[in-house]
User: Which sequence fits this backbone?
């Protein structure tokens, strides 16, 4: 009889063990292998060198953005081309997107059920008085969560994904603003270089004529020294502007994510970019639209929306701390064959939480929520004040530019009159060129007023966090 019981028992236990063992192959099917990914300096240099206007992936990307094959590869840098290139090649933007993707994966994790466990135990007795000396058993355990903790965890993960997405969008926006800042500086500096070259050329001519007069006894050494110092100062300023221009160009290459040698293969279309920026300000000059800035800023601000997403996270985390007051239960059904007895059992475990600990954690979560709310109020107040200041600042800069426009026309008229006097012999060339040198200051003041206005448009775009001076150039679904 012992043999029959033992044989039946062994069959049942063997079947139970076999059933459990079937679970392991299915689990093994989902295992992923480790694959090493090395980073080598040489390969990085090769990747960076591949970043160019003729890169196949980049050309395909531009076609998706609406370019035709006839327009490619890019022949010169215009505003749209610079912004699209930055979106494609800039590594910091790619990093921000990767961080968003990483956080987004947490949503899928929160949808999974809590982990369960399964196990078997085997033992043997040395007693001769029992029906069987063998002990076999197996069981599983699983967690039952109360108070909708799983739903709340998914809510937290969802809000964190929204916050990470907005952080990614802010990163894209900030990189675009930095590109535009240096681009506007580059164009302004180019205008100054053109004016300064004319001034250096005139000063050289003036010094040459002054030396001739000195040789004829018609000018003193003081005149020579005065003109020498003037041309030296003008030339030093020109050199300084040219060095600044080179540095700005290298900054632009960095902003778009390309090596300078690759970026410098095609020219920057300064006139086209300048025209684009000036045209984009025309719609912004509409006073009715300017008065809508405050309302638009609060609706479109990516930073404000991120703060609201962070507040939602703190709200959900408070909700989760409150839910954690309610215990979870671990159910552990098991089957055991113990010395001839077939035993079924059900275990129920629960972690007893400390009410004082819960109170501390809940109060801390409430304080975090309050701090996040304060951030929203503080930022929105600062945003509204900055938005309101845009209106008088912009209108003042428009008046300043309008003040210099007739002065530019007057300067051109005066230059024409002086040239006629020169042609008619009423003044000599030295007097004529000395007058022209002083007129360049009007050109500089006009350019300063123009770029102050353009930069105010950039300020508006920075505050409102929506395309203004970039007009219809949208990135990453900014629409």
Assistant:
């Amino acid at each position: 009889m012992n043999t029959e019981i033992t044989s039946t028992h062994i069959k049942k236990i063997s079947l139970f063990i076999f059933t459990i063992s079937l679970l392991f192959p299915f689990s093994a099917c989902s295992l992923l292998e480790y694959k090493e990914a090395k980073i080598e300096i040489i390969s990085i240099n090769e990747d960076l060198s591949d970043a160019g206007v003729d890169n196949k992936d980049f050309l395909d990307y531009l076609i998706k953005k609406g370019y035709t094959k006839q327009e490619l590869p890019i022949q010169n840098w215009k505003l749209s081309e610079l912004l699209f290139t930055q979106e494609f090649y800039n590594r910091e933007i790619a990093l921000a997107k990767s961080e968003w993707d990483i956080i987004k994966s947490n949503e899928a994790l929160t949808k999974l059920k809590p982990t369960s466990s399964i196990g078997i135990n085997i033992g043997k007795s040395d007693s001769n008085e029992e029906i069987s000396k063998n002990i076999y058993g197996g069981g599983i355990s699983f967690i039952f969560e109360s108070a909708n903790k799983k739903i709340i965890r998914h809510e937290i993960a969802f809000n964190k994904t929204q916050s990470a997405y907005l952080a990614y969008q802010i990163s894209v926006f900030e990189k675009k603003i930095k590109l535009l800042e240096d681009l506007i500086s580059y164009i302004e500096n180019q205008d100054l270089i053109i004016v300064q070259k004319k001034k250096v050329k005139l000063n050289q001519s003036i010094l040459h004529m002054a030396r001739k007069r000195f040789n004829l006894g018609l000018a003193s050494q003081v005149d020579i020294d005065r003109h020498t110092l003037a041309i030296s100062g003008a030339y030093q300023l020109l050199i300084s502007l040219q060095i600044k221009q080179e540095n700005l160009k290298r900054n632009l290459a960095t902003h778009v994510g390309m090596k300078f040698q690759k970026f410098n293969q095609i020219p920057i279309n300064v006139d086209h970019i300048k025209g684009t920026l000036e045209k984009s300000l025309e719609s912004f000059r509409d006073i009715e639209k300017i008065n809508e800035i405050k309302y638009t800023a609060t609706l479109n601000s990516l930073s404000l929306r991120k703060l609201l997403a962070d507040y939602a996270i703190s709200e959900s985390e408070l909700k989760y701390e409150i839910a954690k007051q309610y215990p979870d239960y671990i159910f552990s059904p098991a089957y055991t064959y113990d010395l001839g007895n077939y035993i079924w059992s059900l275990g129920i475990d629960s972690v007893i939480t400390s009410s004082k600990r819960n109170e501390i954690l809940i109060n801390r979560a409430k304080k975090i929520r309050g701090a996040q709310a304060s951030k929203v109020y503080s930022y929105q107040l600062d945003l509204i004040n900055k938005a309101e200041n845009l209106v008088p600042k912009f209108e003042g800069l428009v008046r300043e530019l309008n003040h210099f426009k007739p002065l530019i026309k007057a300067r051109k008229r005066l230059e024409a009159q002086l040239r006629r006097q020169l042609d008619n012999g009423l003044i000599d060339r030295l007097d004529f060129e000395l007058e022209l040198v002083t007129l360049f200051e009007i050109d500089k003041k006009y350019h300063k007023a123009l770029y102050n206005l353009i930069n105010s448009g950039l300020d508006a775009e920075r505050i409102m966090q929506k395309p203004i001076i970039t007009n219809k150039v949208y990135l990453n679904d900014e629409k």
Q: What stands out?
A: Strands lie at 117-124, 134-144, 329-338, 341-350. Residues 419 and 425 are 10 Å apart (CA to CA). DSSP finds 14 helices and four strands in the chain. The radius of gyration is 38 Å.
